[in-house]
Amino acid sequence: MSLDFSWRFDGWIRSLPASPKENGKVEGLVIRPEGSGEGERQRVESVVVVPESGVEGDRWAASPYATAGNEVSLINAHLLRVISDGDEERGALSGDNLQVDLDLSQENLPVGTRLSIGKAVLEISDVEHRPCGSFVERFGKKTAKRVARANRIGLRGRGVLCHVRVRGEIKVGDQISVERTGI
């Protein structure tokens, strides 16, 4: 029997600045350029999201891991700043398309919740966003354990994955409106 000491990371995730539950903001945008190698990222000022294709110009569609429900990834900007020591270029290595100031917890954004950003609409999927091997290499084992623990307690430390429901442009600085109707 192994003992679980992951609770010791609870204070870390709860010490991050609180994000809004209803009206968030896009603080950064990242693509993994089509045809680029592992770890190549490009920070951009705007993206276009497309149903079943994800972010235009991102290599997601060509990935063997591309499945319905993981078209677009979001990560909390406060968490990202901490794990990347405030270095925006290093933060981009997380690979998440949208860096947002929004409470991404399961309680706040249950599966099926819709996020309106400009004319685009994203929907929270049931696919769990977990730290992968590349995430561990870039940010360390301790950080990976912290975000994995946050996932286990419903805080979605690694972020959240979404379907694109309505095509649209998303820009840095755009407001995010949470729509829970019909859930």
Please give a quick description of this structure.
The protein is built from five helices and eleven strands, in the order H-E-E-E-E-E-H-H-E-E-E-H-H-E-E-E. It is of the alpha+beta class and 183 residues long.
List the helices and strands and how they pair.
Layout: H1 10-14, E1 23-31, E2 42-44, E3 46-50, E4 54-55, E5 72-76, H2 77-83, H3 88-92, E6 98-101, E7 114-117, E8 120-124, H4 133-139, H5 141-152, E9 160-166, E10 168-171, E11 175-179
Helix pairs in contact: 4-5
Order of helices and strands: HEEEEEHHEEEHHEEE
User: What is the end-to-end distance?
Assistant: 39 Å
Uncertain runs are none
Silhouette: globular
Q: Strands of the biggest beta sheet: in what spatial order?
A: 1-6-5-9-8-7-11
How can the largest sheet be summarized? 7 strands, mixed, barrel
Strand content: 25-35%
**Backbone CA Rg:** 15 Å
Give the tally of β-strands.
11
Descriptive notes:
The protein has a seven-stranded mixed barrel. Strands 4-3-10 form a three-stranded antiparallel β-sheet, with no helix packed on it. It is built from five helices and eleven strands. α4 packs across α5. The radius of gyration is 15 Å and the shape is globular. The protein has helices at 10-14, 77-83, 88-92, 133-139, 141-152; strands at 23-31, 42-44, 46-50, 54-55, 72-76, 98-101, 114-117, 120-124, 160-166, 168-171, 175-179. It has 183 residues and is an alpha+beta fold.
